[in-house]
Write a structure and sequence with these properties.
single chain; 329 residues; alpha/beta; Nucleotidyltransferase, domain 5; six-stranded mixed beta sheet; globular
Length: 329
């Protein structure tokens, strides 16, 4: 168990690599409070040589703090990783604290971090097989399972929308043959996603058959997604819009309506995320070890899992910083 992350500090044109076994889910909270706190937090973690790079299977979060260029590149979290409107507000608030810094989301995860510092991305990529045997654009059994939406323009006058369950890569990895799998009876002429799910979708894609153009967007990190899809849709124009879901609204001429975004509710959610005290994962680990031991099973634990290096600013200090960021929205 763990939430593994690589953390990197760039200074004087070289980088230092760190590893944390537990911070991938809490990284947005760990980095939010400004440059100096982020430096202190990263330097508390385990410093390693290049053998300490995680691959795209194990890396659940990560960050680069470039002190030379004043740039922060990161990804992670349990909430903002999958919720684009929440993340957009978070990044706006963060920008008011990290004044003078460029803050960028790593949409391809550990690949973006490796590429940034010149580490060969092939060393952090693993091979995987696409599970595309029973592909269908049928809607899920329950409406609130919808987390992806597809739009397909078959002709100048025919556009259909498909509410789906599963990441965009599940569908787009099929390549252009996906078009032959489309059952138009599953399609809708218009969709208001509020009628399907209260949770904002994690991704979407738009296929324009006439123009041979594929556009997609996604909330979560998908390593090497652009290169892989360009290879599979090799004679198509392939456009990664990252988290810009508005592009699909425009491509569908507004026939796809996303959920209404309540900024006040998002702000209250962020306050809870940033101000609540973090639980200690070592307590959970100790409980599991004892349970296994009581059952007569031997448990081996990585020494990295026994390190939980965390320093939380006092709550009143965090409240002051957050209030400043909110006041300057």
């Amino acid at each position: 168990m763990g939430q593994r992350a690589n953390l990197i500090i760039v200074r004087n044109k070289s980088y230092e690599l760190y590893y944390s076994h537990w911070c991938a889910n809490t990284l947005p909270k760990d980095l939010f409070w400004g440059e100096q706190y982020a430096i202190n937090f990263i330097e508390m973690q385990t410093k390693l040589d290049e053998s300490g790079w995680l691959d795209d299977v194990w890396a659940e979060g990560g960050a680069i703090l470039d002190l030379d260029k004043k740039k922060l590149l990161f990804y992670g979290g349990e909430d903002i990783l999958y919720d684009i409107p929440l993340r957009n507000l978070y990044l706006k608030l963060m920008g008011n604290i990290w004044y003078g810094w460029e803050i960028q989301w790593a949409y391809e995860g550990i690949i973006d971090l490796a590429t940034y510092v010149g580490y060969p991305k092939e060393k952090v990529l693993t091979s995987s097989e696409d599970d595309i045997n029973d592909l269908s654009l049928a809607p899920p059994e329950e409406k609130n399972w919808v987390d992806t939406v597809a739009s397909v323009r078959f002709s100048q006058n025919e556009l259909l929308l498909f509410p789906l369950c599963g990441g965009i890569d599940v569908y787009l990895s099929y390549g252009p043959d996906l078009i032959n799998k489309i059952d138009k009876s599953y399609g809708y002429k218009s969709i208001f996603l509020d009628e399907w799910s209260k949770d904002f979708p994690m991704g979407g894609f738009h296929i324009d058959i006439l123009s041979r153009r594929l556009e997609f967007w996604h909330a979560n990190d998908i390593p090497n997604i652009s290169q892989e899809l360009q290879a599979k849709w090799f004679d198509w124009e392939v456009i990664d819009n990252y988290s810009n879901y508005e592009t699909q609204y425009k491509s569908t001429n507004g026939l796809l309506q996303f959920q209404d975004i309540n900024q006040h509710q998002l702000l209250e959610k962020l306050k809870v995320l940033l101000l609540n005290e973090s639980s200690n994962p070592l307590d959970t680990l100790a409980y599991i070890v004892k349970k296994e031991a009581d059952a007569g099973r031997k448990v081996e634990i990585s020494p990295y899992a026994l390190r939980y290096d965390k320093y939380e600013l006092p709550r009143n200090v965090r409240e002051e910083i957050l209030d400043f960021a909110i006041d300057n929205l």
